[in-house]
Amino acid sequence: MILSCKNICKAFVTHTVLDNVNFWLEKGDKAAIVGINGAGKSTLFKIITNELEADSGQVIINSLTKLGYLSQNSTLSSEKTIYDEMLLTCKEIIQMENTLREYEVKMSKLDNDSEALDSLMKSYSNLQHTFELNNGYSYKSNIKGVLKGLGFNEEDFTANISTLSGGQKTRVALAKILLEKPDILLLDEPTNHLDIKACEWLEGFLCNYQGTVIIISHDRYFLDKIVNKVIEIENTQSHIYNGNYSFYIKHKAMNQDIEIKHYVEQQKEIKRQEEVIRELRSHGRDKLIKRAQSREKQLQKINMIDKPTLINDKMNLKLSPRVISGNDVLTATDVSKSFDNKHLFSNLNFQIKRGEKVALIGDNGTGKTTLFRIISNGLTGDTGTISLGAKVNTGYYDQEHTTLNGDNDLIEEISDAYPNMNTGHIRNTLAAFLFTGDDVFKKISSLSGGEKGRLILAKLMLSNANFLLLDEPTNHLDIISKEILESAIKNYTGTVLFISHDRYFINKIATRVLELTPNKLNNYLGNYSYVIEKKQEEEKQRLLELENSINNKKQEDTPIATSNKQDWLKSKDEQANKRKLNNQIKKIETDIHEIENNIKTIDEKLCLEEIYTNAEKAETLLNEKTHYENELENLYEKWEELLG
């Protein structure tokens, strides 16, 4: 165990944030801390790093354990260049390197003193061994690899940190922490200022990281790739799930179903007992009244189950634009754009049809937002044309929320935009975006980023817009707000073009992906997973062609007799491998069938009254089921790998 949090409690003036939070992590664990905005995730990080003191409980970490912490708003204040700042993480290595150079100079001057030379050479050899063990020969390439991975070019390395933007300073701070290689790495929203390419690089880095990693992130795809444990903070309490984010979502839903079932059954039993008690008392006989009193005492001893708190984050409303556009929504022909001799893109050609949900992706600096501005007439292209189809009305999703009046409440904001709409219609629309009860009277200035985003989307859905342009719509939204946004857009029957680096969001929404590169625009007829699949196929094909080219060259230089013998041996090996492969597949299929039967048996047991009314038995069975499901998932992965 490398870290343990025991009974952590923290309250501020108005409310309790954490109450008896418990979890522990082993060396090498990759854990996510999840929960709604304000749940206490960042507070817990600050308690672990001693920035805040818990009201009670303790954080147990060995005094020799090194912590690295990237806060949500981390920036680096330094007058050094980016590269020189990174060199500070390698001070000991650089000192060893300097000492080795000094030894070399001294050894060159001790030709006539064999005893001193032997002693110095021994010291040199020992230090060189230590230098090699600490990857001394690769520290410069490590620095370059991390900086490039996080989106910096070599020409950026000499830039002074004081001249960088806030987002660039955050990336520099992240790079420095990664290079320091702490035993425990705490990262609060590390992907906020990263494009997709940098996110993918960071995923690979953290997956291979030898230390323990704890992440707060709203990037669900990122969490799915990295973590093996999820710590949920909900209603001040902690809940542990031993799996990635998808595992957590699935099993949280299962737990909620069981909680609801237990609660409903207990409420039924309480009502039944209360009816029996009333019936016994109604007869007025002493004997029956005593029996009623006995039942009342038993009822008072029941360990009451709290009513499960559920967040309704699903929208079943079909959202249709008021005006239906023609089938051809947008046609781009030979569009080009450059700024101050910096070329962005040229000869872009694409079409968007009615009802499509198209994601525009690409590295930072490729011109995605510029293309958006050309489409919305905010900017003119150097060449080419952008044509909107018949009855196409565009609506723009403003991630900075500048279109909202902070002095309005929600009803006033909608009413100002649509003065002919009655209050009932306004409240129904707001309810569809989860603004209910007194929420509709909140001042916009008091809303969270996620709430403002939902309100802007509600206004867009009420407008005449039937072609939505969304520029990074999930930025700074918590996970629940993202899920609401996904549901709204999926139910929207109009057309959507959106820029996003949120791969989970792209997977949920996109029916097509346009990838903008410095050389061309790639068109993929699917979501982000499809893009990855196609790129992997292309890479396999490239490697296969390269291998074939090498083999053909070898065959040209190999005698025919030798070639025939090699073909025979190869055929023999292939047949043996095929038999072995078929046996492995049959064994896995047998195991899969057996585990599926075990899961089916557990599901049947969970439906029995004597089980679901007994929380302990139900939890035991649920743990067994979780174990089998994990095994089943691993077996299916192996089975798919063997099938190729």
Automatic annotation (TrEMBL):
CDD domains named in the record: ABCF_EF-3
SUPFAM superfamilies per the UniProt record, alphabetical: P-loop containing nucleoside triphosphate hydrolases
Signal peptide span: none
Coiled coil feature spans: 536-638
Domain ABC transporter: 3-260, 330-544
Keyword line: ATP-binding, Coiled coil, Nucleotide-binding, Repeat
Any Pfam family hit: ABC_tran
Protein name: ABC-F family ATP-binding cassette domain-containing protein
Lineage: Bacteria, Bacillati, Bacillota, Clostridia, Lachnospirales
